[in-house]
Amino acid sequence: MRNILNKGEFSVTFNQNFRDVISYCQKVKRDGQNGTWITNDMIEAYCKLDDLGIAKSVEVWQDDNLVGGLYGVDLGHIFCGESMFSLVSNASKVAFIALVNHLKKENYKLLDCQVYNPHLESLGCREIPRNEFMRILQQQ
After folding, report:
1. Any signal peptide, and if so, which residues (predicted)?
2. pTM
């Protein structure tokens, strides 16, 4: 990923296009999944959370086109990732790396990816026990 980031093929923004990010997360087909859990009502609810500054997005651009991103809920010390999408290879990884770098700078305690999978493991994620998660959640 370092080579891809150094090529400068992508640019990244934060909280600039939340509705499009969540809409792509709803529409993009995923291998091994039949449909999505992101309903239109959920999109509207999350967009209201975005208006309140609670939900946040990361957008990845290539040639002025939105090609990847992710969104989630920001608790101030924990970011709860909800979904990500990629229209071109590596775009969701770029979004994830940008988010991790941002959260490190802001001294966040945890990035909750919710569903552990090989893709997230390849990006450095690891499972933690529930009691550890609850302890971190209760910290401010």
Report:
1. none
2. 0.87
